[in-house]
Design a protein that fits this description.
- With 282 residues, the chain is mostly helical.
- The protein has one domain.
- Helices cover 80% and strands 0% of the residues.
- It has 13 helices and no strands.
- Helix 5 crosses helix 7 and helix 5 packs antiparallel against helix 11.
- The longest helix has 27 residues.
- It is globular, with a radius of gyration of 18 Å.
Protein backbone atom coordinates (compact mmCIF):
# COMPACT_ATOMS: atom_id res chain seq x y z
CA UNK A 1 0.00 0.00 0.00
CA UNK A 2 2.89 2.37 0.74
CA UNK A 3 4.24 1.88 -2.79
CA UNK A 4 0.83 2.67 -4.30
CA UNK A 5 0.29 5.84 -2.24
CA UNK A 6 3.86 7.00 -2.81
CA UNK A 7 3.70 6.35 -6.55
CA UNK A 8 0.35 8.13 -6.97
CA UNK A 9 1.54 11.08 -4.87
CA UNK A 10 4.62 11.39 -7.07
CA UNK A 11 2.45 11.22 -10.21
CA UNK A 12 0.23 14.09 -9.05
CA UNK A 13 3.13 16.31 -7.99
CA UNK A 14 5.15 15.64 -11.14
CA UNK A 15 2.10 16.50 -13.24
CA UNK A 16 1.96 19.88 -11.49
CA UNK A 17 5.69 20.31 -12.10
CA UNK A 18 5.37 19.53 -15.81
CA UNK A 19 2.39 21.82 -16.35
CA UNK A 20 4.19 24.68 -14.64
CA UNK A 21 7.51 24.15 -16.41
CA UNK A 22 5.85 23.86 -19.84
CA UNK A 23 5.00 27.57 -19.59
CA UNK A 24 8.31 28.80 -18.18
CA UNK A 25 10.57 26.95 -20.63
CA UNK A 26 9.01 28.85 -23.53
CA UNK A 27 9.79 32.13 -21.77
CA UNK A 28 13.42 31.73 -20.63
CA UNK A 29 14.60 28.38 -22.03
CA UNK A 30 15.09 24.89 -20.60
CA UNK A 31 18.55 25.44 -19.08
CA UNK A 32 17.52 28.53 -17.08
CA UNK A 33 14.32 26.88 -15.88
CA UNK A 34 16.22 23.76 -14.78
CA UNK A 35 18.75 25.94 -12.96
CA UNK A 36 16.12 27.78 -10.93
CA UNK A 37 14.15 24.58 -10.29
CA UNK A 38 17.29 22.97 -8.86
CA UNK A 39 18.12 26.08 -6.81
CA UNK A 40 14.62 26.05 -5.28
CA UNK A 41 14.89 22.31 -4.70
CA UNK A 42 18.32 22.62 -3.11
CA UNK A 43 17.10 25.27 -0.65
CA UNK A 44 14.16 23.06 0.35
CA UNK A 45 16.41 19.99 0.50
CA UNK A 46 18.96 21.65 2.78
CA UNK A 47 16.12 22.86 4.99
CA UNK A 48 14.84 19.28 5.24
CA UNK A 49 18.33 18.04 6.16
CA UNK A 50 18.63 20.77 8.79
CA UNK A 51 15.24 20.03 10.33
CA UNK A 52 15.66 16.26 10.42
CA UNK A 53 19.37 16.39 11.29
CA UNK A 54 19.64 13.25 9.19
CA UNK A 55 22.98 11.44 9.52
CA UNK A 56 24.65 9.90 6.49
CA UNK A 57 27.03 6.98 6.20
CA UNK A 58 28.25 6.27 2.69
CA UNK A 59 30.11 3.32 1.25
CA UNK A 60 31.45 3.11 -2.32
CA UNK A 61 28.37 1.38 -3.71
CA UNK A 62 25.92 3.88 -2.21
CA UNK A 63 28.02 6.78 -3.51
CA UNK A 64 27.87 5.38 -7.05
CA UNK A 65 24.09 4.92 -6.90
CA UNK A 66 23.65 8.46 -5.56
CA UNK A 67 25.73 9.75 -8.48
CA UNK A 68 23.56 7.83 -10.95
CA UNK A 69 20.45 9.27 -9.32
CA UNK A 70 21.88 12.77 -9.40
CA UNK A 71 23.05 12.86 -13.01
CA UNK A 72 20.09 10.85 -14.32
CA UNK A 73 17.51 13.08 -12.63
CA UNK A 74 19.15 16.39 -13.55
CA UNK A 75 19.97 15.47 -17.16
CA UNK A 76 16.63 13.71 -17.67
CA UNK A 77 14.76 16.76 -16.40
CA UNK A 78 16.79 19.01 -18.71
CA UNK A 79 15.80 16.90 -21.74
CA UNK A 80 12.15 16.87 -20.60
CA UNK A 81 12.10 20.67 -20.24
CA UNK A 82 13.64 21.00 -23.70
CA UNK A 83 10.94 18.68 -25.06
CA UNK A 84 8.20 20.71 -23.38
CA UNK A 85 9.56 23.87 -25.00
CA UNK A 86 9.21 22.30 -28.47
CA UNK A 87 6.03 20.22 -28.23
CA UNK A 88 2.76 19.64 -26.46
CA UNK A 89 2.55 18.63 -22.81
CA UNK A 90 0.65 15.45 -23.70
CA UNK A 91 3.30 14.37 -26.20
CA UNK A 92 6.33 15.03 -23.99
CA UNK A 93 4.89 13.62 -20.78
CA UNK A 94 3.34 10.50 -22.32
CA UNK A 95 6.72 9.48 -23.75
CA UNK A 96 8.67 10.44 -20.63
CA UNK A 97 6.18 8.51 -18.50
CA UNK A 98 7.80 5.31 -19.79
CA UNK A 99 10.56 6.10 -17.28
CA UNK A 100 8.59 3.89 -14.90
CA UNK A 101 8.82 1.00 -17.34
CA UNK A 102 12.55 1.64 -17.71
CA UNK A 103 12.97 1.53 -13.92
CA UNK A 104 10.83 -1.61 -13.68
CA UNK A 105 12.94 -3.25 -16.40
CA UNK A 106 16.12 -2.42 -14.50
CA UNK A 107 14.52 -3.94 -11.40
CA UNK A 108 13.89 -7.15 -13.34
CA UNK A 109 17.47 -7.21 -14.59
CA UNK A 110 18.63 -6.74 -11.00
CA UNK A 111 16.57 -9.73 -9.89
CA UNK A 112 13.06 -8.47 -9.05
CA UNK A 113 10.57 -10.97 -10.50
CA UNK A 114 7.83 -9.98 -12.98
CA UNK A 115 5.33 -12.35 -14.57
CA UNK A 116 4.85 -13.04 -18.28
CA UNK A 117 1.88 -10.65 -18.39
CA UNK A 118 4.08 -7.82 -17.18
CA UNK A 119 6.40 -8.21 -20.14
CA UNK A 120 3.40 -7.93 -22.44
CA UNK A 121 2.33 -4.76 -20.69
CA UNK A 122 5.80 -3.28 -21.15
CA UNK A 123 5.46 -4.01 -24.87
CA UNK A 124 2.12 -2.18 -24.87
CA UNK A 125 3.84 0.84 -23.34
CA UNK A 126 6.31 0.86 -26.23
CA UNK A 127 3.45 0.52 -28.73
CA UNK A 128 1.64 3.45 -27.14
CA UNK A 129 4.73 5.62 -27.49
CA UNK A 130 5.04 4.72 -31.18
CA UNK A 131 1.37 5.60 -31.75
CA UNK A 132 1.71 8.95 -30.01
CA UNK A 133 4.84 9.98 -31.86
CA UNK A 134 4.08 8.67 -35.36
CA UNK A 135 0.72 10.40 -35.87
CA UNK A 136 0.62 13.67 -37.81
CA UNK A 137 -0.60 16.61 -35.71
CA UNK A 138 -3.21 18.79 -37.48
CA UNK A 139 -3.29 21.33 -34.65
CA UNK A 140 0.33 22.06 -33.62
CA UNK A 141 1.19 24.64 -30.99
CA UNK A 142 3.17 27.71 -32.16
CA UNK A 143 6.80 26.80 -32.87
CA UNK A 144 6.19 23.08 -32.36
CA UNK A 145 8.91 20.68 -33.54
CA UNK A 146 7.25 17.36 -32.78
CA UNK A 147 9.96 14.95 -33.97
CA UNK A 148 12.71 16.65 -31.97
CA UNK A 149 10.42 16.98 -28.94
CA UNK A 150 9.70 13.24 -29.11
CA UNK A 151 13.38 12.34 -29.40
CA UNK A 152 14.25 14.51 -26.40
CA UNK A 153 11.42 12.92 -24.41
CA UNK A 154 12.76 9.42 -25.18
CA UNK A 155 16.16 10.47 -23.85
CA UNK A 156 14.48 11.94 -20.78
CA UNK A 157 12.64 8.65 -20.17
CA UNK A 158 15.85 6.60 -20.28
CA UNK A 159 17.84 8.90 -17.99
CA UNK A 160 14.96 9.48 -15.58
CA UNK A 161 14.23 5.74 -15.48
CA UNK A 162 17.82 5.09 -14.41
CA UNK A 163 17.50 7.82 -11.76
CA UNK A 164 14.22 6.38 -10.49
CA UNK A 165 15.76 2.94 -10.14
CA UNK A 166 18.89 4.29 -8.44
CA UNK A 167 16.80 6.39 -6.03
CA UNK A 168 14.66 3.40 -5.13
CA UNK A 169 17.78 1.24 -4.73
CA UNK A 170 19.25 3.51 -2.04
CA UNK A 171 16.01 4.73 -0.45
CA UNK A 172 16.09 1.97 2.16
CA UNK A 173 19.74 2.54 3.09
CA UNK A 174 20.08 6.33 3.19
CA UNK A 175 17.94 8.99 4.90
CA UNK A 176 15.37 10.42 2.49
CA UNK A 177 16.75 13.93 2.95
CA UNK A 178 20.11 12.75 1.58
CA UNK A 179 18.51 10.62 -1.15
CA UNK A 180 17.00 13.78 -2.63
CA UNK A 181 20.22 15.82 -2.54
CA UNK A 182 22.40 14.56 -5.46
CA UNK A 183 20.20 15.76 -8.37
CA UNK A 184 19.90 19.24 -6.89
CA UNK A 185 23.67 19.46 -6.32
CA UNK A 186 24.37 18.32 -9.88
CA UNK A 187 21.87 20.78 -11.33
CA UNK A 188 23.17 23.75 -9.34
CA UNK A 189 26.91 23.04 -9.70
CA UNK A 190 26.99 21.90 -13.33
CA UNK A 191 24.20 24.00 -14.85
CA UNK A 192 23.08 26.93 -12.68
CA UNK A 193 26.53 28.14 -11.63
CA UNK A 194 28.08 28.09 -15.15
CA UNK A 195 25.05 29.93 -16.55
CA UNK A 196 25.26 32.54 -13.79
CA UNK A 197 29.02 33.02 -14.27
CA UNK A 198 28.63 33.53 -18.03
CA UNK A 199 25.65 35.85 -17.61
CA UNK A 200 23.20 33.52 -19.38
CA UNK A 201 21.02 32.66 -16.37
CA UNK A 202 17.65 34.27 -17.03
CA UNK A 203 14.70 35.04 -14.74
CA UNK A 204 11.73 37.39 -15.04
CA UNK A 205 9.00 38.38 -12.60
CA UNK A 206 6.47 36.55 -14.76
CA UNK A 207 8.46 33.31 -14.67
CA UNK A 208 9.30 33.37 -10.93
CA UNK A 209 6.04 31.75 -9.67
CA UNK A 210 6.36 28.99 -12.27
CA UNK A 211 9.92 27.99 -11.34
CA UNK A 212 9.13 28.07 -7.62
CA UNK A 213 6.07 25.87 -8.13
CA UNK A 214 8.04 23.52 -10.40
CA UNK A 215 10.94 23.21 -7.95
CA UNK A 216 8.71 22.57 -4.94
CA UNK A 217 6.50 20.04 -6.75
CA UNK A 218 9.48 18.26 -8.28
CA UNK A 219 11.28 17.61 -4.99
CA UNK A 220 8.03 16.75 -3.17
CA UNK A 221 7.25 14.21 -5.90
CA UNK A 222 10.66 12.58 -5.48
CA UNK A 223 10.08 12.44 -1.72
CA UNK A 224 6.78 10.60 -2.26
CA UNK A 225 8.39 8.21 -4.70
CA UNK A 226 11.34 7.46 -2.39
CA UNK A 227 8.94 6.60 0.43
CA UNK A 228 6.94 4.30 -1.86
CA UNK A 229 10.07 2.67 -3.30
CA UNK A 230 11.01 1.42 0.15
CA UNK A 231 8.06 -0.95 -0.25
CA UNK A 232 8.46 -1.78 -3.97
CA UNK A 233 10.60 -0.03 -6.57
CA UNK A 234 8.68 -1.46 -9.53
CA UNK A 235 5.19 -0.57 -8.25
CA UNK A 236 6.13 2.95 -7.12
CA UNK A 237 8.05 3.61 -10.35
CA UNK A 238 5.30 2.48 -12.68
CA UNK A 239 2.50 4.24 -10.77
CA UNK A 240 4.47 7.47 -10.67
CA UNK A 241 4.42 7.35 -14.49
CA UNK A 242 0.73 8.21 -14.40
CA UNK A 243 1.84 11.85 -14.17
CA UNK A 244 1.57 11.87 -17.99
CA UNK A 245 -2.17 11.27 -18.07
CA UNK A 246 -2.73 13.81 -15.30
CA UNK A 247 -0.61 16.42 -17.07
CA UNK A 248 -2.31 15.77 -20.41
CA UNK A 249 -5.76 16.33 -18.91
CA UNK A 250 -4.48 19.42 -17.14
CA UNK A 251 -3.00 20.81 -20.36
CA UNK A 252 -6.34 20.36 -22.11
CA UNK A 253 -8.24 22.35 -19.49
CA UNK A 254 -5.55 24.93 -18.72
CA UNK A 255 -3.90 25.50 -22.11
CA UNK A 256 -6.45 24.06 -24.58
CA UNK A 257 -3.86 21.69 -26.00
CA UNK A 258 -5.56 19.06 -28.13
CA UNK A 259 -4.26 15.70 -29.31
CA UNK A 260 -5.40 13.70 -32.33
CA UNK A 261 -7.62 10.66 -31.89
CA UNK A 262 -4.67 8.32 -32.48
CA UNK A 263 -2.53 10.24 -29.99
CA UNK A 264 -5.32 10.05 -27.40
CA UNK A 265 -5.50 6.29 -27.98
CA UNK A 266 -1.73 6.08 -27.58
CA UNK A 267 -1.82 8.02 -24.32
CA UNK A 268 -4.69 5.81 -23.11
CA UNK A 269 -2.70 2.66 -23.95
CA UNK A 270 0.34 3.94 -22.06
CA UNK A 271 -1.78 4.94 -19.06
CA UNK A 272 -3.72 1.66 -18.95
CA UNK A 273 -0.56 -0.40 -19.40
CA UNK A 274 1.41 1.28 -16.61
CA UNK A 275 -1.59 1.15 -14.25
CA UNK A 276 -2.17 -2.56 -14.96
CA UNK A 277 1.53 -3.25 -14.63
CA UNK A 278 1.53 -1.64 -11.20
CA UNK A 279 -1.46 -3.74 -10.13
CA UNK A 280 -0.04 -7.03 -11.41
CA UNK A 281 3.37 -6.31 -9.92
CA UNK A 282 1.78 -5.56 -6.57
Amino acid sequence: MTAVVGGLGAALLWAVSNLSSSRSTRMIGAASVLSWVMVVGLVLNLGLIGVTRAPISLDASTTVWMAVAGFGNACGLLLLLASLSLGKVGLATSITSTEGAVAATLSVIAGEHLGVASYGLLALVVGGVVLVTSTADPDPVPGERRAKAALLAVGAAVLSGAAIYATGHISGDVSLAWVLLPPRLVGVVLIAVPLAVTGRLRLTREVLPYVVATGAAEIAGWLCYAVGARDSIAVAAVLSSLFAATATVGAFFLFRERLTRHQVIGVAIITAAVATLAATTA
